[in-house]
Write a structure and sequence with these properties.
Layout lengths: L1 H17 L7 E6 L4 H14 L4 E5 L4 E4 L2 E2 L6 E11 L2 E11 L4 H7 L4 E3 L9 H13 L6 E5 L10
Antiparallel strand pairs: 1-6, 1-8, 2-3, 3-5, 4-5, 5-6, 6-7
Amino acid sequence: MKKIVIITLALLIGAALSAQQKGDTGIRLTTEYGTIMEAVSGILETLADAGIGVESVDMELGIVNGAVTSTKRATTTIQPRFLVTSKDGKILITATGTGNAGASPTLAKTMGGNAVVQVVRDGQKGSILLSQWETLEELALKVPHTEVKYINPNPPEKKRK
């Protein structure tokens, strides 16, 4: 019984550490690709399967910039970006993106017109910001992977008891 409790707690803690949070700006995928070039090819295939063009590719540096694409909300777009790196013998893919803020009156006023902003997990259900994040996440998770971690440059402070 004690082992079951320990295993359950370990799984819950692991899930919490990789769970999404408000303010996430990227998605890091651990893959089974053998090289950076293989991973770039996999990203290109994923983009093609999703009907998204490619703006630029650097196979040696492991950088893929997708073409601007619409989100589920017709009033906003994102441009996905992928960076492939190798760490401790594993190939990692980091997905980030930029989106247009002009469709949101509040953001447009704050940013000065149809500004380009970093895609971030924020906003309420159905909002432009959350729609941009969901589009990026859906695309990133189509890339073959074994593990997912969400990147948050400013994680919320833990509540103290």
